[in-house]
Amino acid sequence: MWGKDYDKNLVQPWRNFMPVELLIAMLRDPASTGALLPSSRALARAMANAATGADLIVELGAGTGAVTRALLHAQPHVPLIAVELQPPLAQRLKACCPTADVRQAAAKEVVDALIDAQGKVVLISSLPFRSLPRRVASETATCLCRFLERNPARKLVQFTYQPRAPFGAPPGLQWQRTSVVWRNTPPAGIWELQAVS
Ligand SMILES: C[S@@+](CC[C@H](N)C(=O)[O-])C[C@H]1O[C@@H](n2cnc3c(N)ncnc32)[C@H](O)[C@@H]1O
User: Fold this and answer.
1) Does the beta carbon of 38 sit less than 6 angstroms from any atom of ligand 1?
2) Which of 83, 94, 109, 195 is the most buried (most CB within 10 A)?
3) What is the mean pLDDT of residues 90-100?
4) Domains and CATH numbers, the chain
């Protein structure tokens, strides 16, 4: 299931710690990239475990694939759509995770298109809401909230480095911080957003 980039990562283990594609993405567009290092294994595992029970997983801002790989490992029988905006990172994802449905697109586009999806859809997001351009952050947050309001079985799982909820939610939805992952640089809080039933 691993592509040629996975072999490269075994021969050059530093590529896992600091993938060149992430460094270039950070230099080109720091606001959208949001991080210089990939998510740690501990954070990726915690995000992947939060998707337990899903009928469909949609990963937003899949980046270098740290969380994608953990999702494929933890939830091998659940269909996974991995969304990444930046073409070089999306290419890398296609190579390293050929069993995922990788889409090079904006999160908003993909989530809007899934508004009528059946079953329990879990959104697993690494989107950097705090650094995204204000308009993109606001339009994306509005779209995710609209998606969750349709069905209380759906949820969004989002990590953040800040001590507060990733973004403001309307009254029908509620944030809950479910854990803090200390083995990540920097430590990250995992938050879940769901409709109040
Ligand atoms: C914090 S980084 C990725 C973290 C990822 N878990 C990893 O370990 O590589 C956030 C990613 O979100 C992507 N991104 C930013 N805005 C996006 C959008 N509107 N739609 C989809 N992806 C987006 C960036 O290109 C970046 O790769």
Assistant:
1) yes
2) 83
3) 96
4) 4-195 (3.40.50.150)
Dihedral sign for Cα 44, 49, 51, 54, please. Answer: positive
pLDDT per residue as tens digits for the range 115-156 = 999 999 999 999 999 999 999 999 999 999 999 999 999 999
For residue 12, pLDDT over 50 is answered with no
Distance 33 CA to ligand 1 centre (A): 6
- Looking at 75-184, list the stretches that DSSP marks H as alpha helix, in order from N- to C-terminal side: 87-96, 107-113, 134-149
Residue nearest to atom 18 of ligand 1 (CA): 106
Looking at the CA of residue 19, tell me the nearest atom of ligand 1. Answer: 9
DSSP state of 37: S
* Beta carbon of 123 within 6 Å of any ligand 1 atom: no
Q: Per-residue confidence at 22, pLDDT binned at 50, 70, 90?
A: confident
Q: Is the dihedral of CA 168, 136, 68, 71 positive or negative?
A: positive
Is residue 19 lining ligand 1, measured as CB closer than 6 Å?
no
